[in-house]
Amino acid sequence: MKVPYQYSDYKSVVMDGSYLLVDKTKYIEVLEDVGKQLLFLRPRRFGKSFFLSMLQCYYDIREKENFEKLFGGTYIYDHKTAYANSYHVLKFDFSSISATRESAMSSFSEEVSYKLRNLIDQEQLPIELADADEPNRIFNSF
């Protein structure tokens, strides 16, 4: 079996089936017990993105039909919490945002607007998103 080094997409690694994975799903219960303010401080290449991708698959309502494929044989499969597959999860990737002062805010706003509009379209939500240049106004209209 291969080690999923440098992969950050939990779903694609699990669905591939040829990777060795360490079951960290027990931490989902721990996170739910801890509270709402979470901060992941780990060194580079320590699996933070992969873990967050696993959380996305666990909580996202759109992955409900894939629960057995994604989590079969893991701790959380036998200890499913009440919050499993019950949220619309938004995943933002700000790695492509321009670092220049002039364009940082506009590229940040574009990413936020794009992801929110994508969710509205995919889920056919009856929400009208404001055309705004500031992320806080875009979120407030959402």
Topology overview:
Elements: H1 10-16, H2 26-34, H3 48-59, H4 67-71, H5 75-78, H6 101-123, H7 135-141
Mean pLDDT equals 87
How many strand units? Answer: 0
**Helical content (DSSP H or I, runs of 4+):** 40-55%
Order of helices and strands: HHHHHHH
N-C termini distance: 44 Å
Name the poorly predicted regions. Answer: none
What is the global morphology? Answer: globular
| Portion in strands | under 5%
Coarse structural class: mainly alpha
Number of helical stretches of at least 4 residues: 7
Overview of this structure, please?
The chain is mainly α and 142 residues long. The protein is 47% helix and 0% strand. The protein has seven helices and no strands. The relative contact order is 0.11.
Quick structural gist:
Helix content is 47%, strand content 0%.
Pick out its properties.
single chain; 142 residues; mainly alpha; 47% helix; 0% strand
